[in-house]
Amino acid sequence: MVSxxxxxxxxxxxxxxxxxxxxSPMPTGYPEPKNRYRLYVEGFNMSIEEPYFWVLEYLRYxxxxxxxxxxxxxxxxxxxxxxxxxxxxxxxxxxxxxxxxLATVGKMVxxxxxxxxxxxVLDERLSYYVDSYNSHSPSRESAEITLKGIWVDMVExxxxxxxxxxxxxxxxxxxxxxxxxxxxxxxxxxDVDEVVKRERGEFNRKVREVLMRKLRTFLTWKEHTYExxxxxxxxxxxxxxxxYEIIRMYMAWVKPYLRNVQRLHMDQQKMDSADLLVAFETSxxxxxxxxHQPVKKGGATPVILVHFWFRTRPEMSYQQEGWQxxxxxxxxxxxxxxxxxxxxxxxxxxxxxxxxEEFQLLSLIDESVKAxxxxxxxxxxxxxAEAGEEDVQPPWQSKxxxxxxxxxxxxxxxxxxxxxxxxxxxxxxxxxxxxxxxxSVDALALKAAIKTAEGNAVTSxxxxxHHFKKHHGMLNW
Length: 477
Fold this sequence. Notes:
single chain; alpha+beta; 2 domains; 5-stranded antiparallel beta sheet; two-stranded antiparallel ribbon; 7 strands; about 55% helix
């Protein structure tokens, strides 16, 4: 049941009513209605599915309430009943699917970290190559020295190899070779001979030969690794985009299963109810419908909330088509009708209030993946944009950024038709009076529309209530 504080936070006045005979008024978890009716139907040989569909069809086809939304649909069954066993089998199948998808998403998010890290390393290495090939760059010499250090350490194995630059300086007494190697910077392989002869002509021929050999080998390695790193970066970038799209795809796939899991879960509060006994074939079902007529822009419409509370004895029987086992419910149903005059904003706020728990469940996967991807920073979005991803918005956000929307104060929702005129006042000039007059007229018109809608809803609700009793042979007047 929704608490009074939560109802008030959405701008509604909570309802307090006498739910039991000779009982004091108590919170019901609903907004205060204009009027309310209650029905009890009980017959141990009558299917209680009939009252639900009778009310649904009457509202839709006879009362003109074509906009019908199902707000609540939960149930609970005794643990020892066959209905419980059948439901748990279906729940287990849905949970297995959710487990598979979430395990795959977790694994791929972990791999996403490695891909972004690899792209960072490649970008760092490529910056050395770009500067070393730019003859006008002020940092060309430092980039060239860095690449030569990588080549000596990684390719020649440093001083451990006697044939390396440092090894020859130590073993063969080419003591000047490291200094000459790290201070001579030809741009291409074809320039090695000319640069060495022009800049290092004062050294003997043997030193120049070794220097040319080392520089030519280094430049060959540099050109080939530069192309290799560029191609590897392109491949990794495309693989990152593919990875990201697959994560989004799995997240879209898992959400229907999460909804199914939530709907197949039994209400734990009802499991502890005195109406549900483990030894009996009993079940409790709660269904709530919100029915309203089409809403005109800026106007109000009659709204009827219908709440069904079923206490049933499910009889498991095989259906003729497909030979699947399903329950037939017989027992007792309590129906509560509540009438309101609401605007479209009222309707949306009420649905949001009732669906808050479901939204939290469905956003569970989004929030977990969001937290992981946010740890990667803006680099992930930058790499995706570079890979040609048009929609680089994170999958946990919709097309419209919720942060751009102006927040509304929930507590002032019911007073908005009367307090909103203040925002239309202008601080000076004769036009301020005109705005005040126009706003007052609009507020009064909306108040009158809400009152008219409430009256229509009460009339329609009485018609449904009255005809239901006549159709089912109940006492009526």
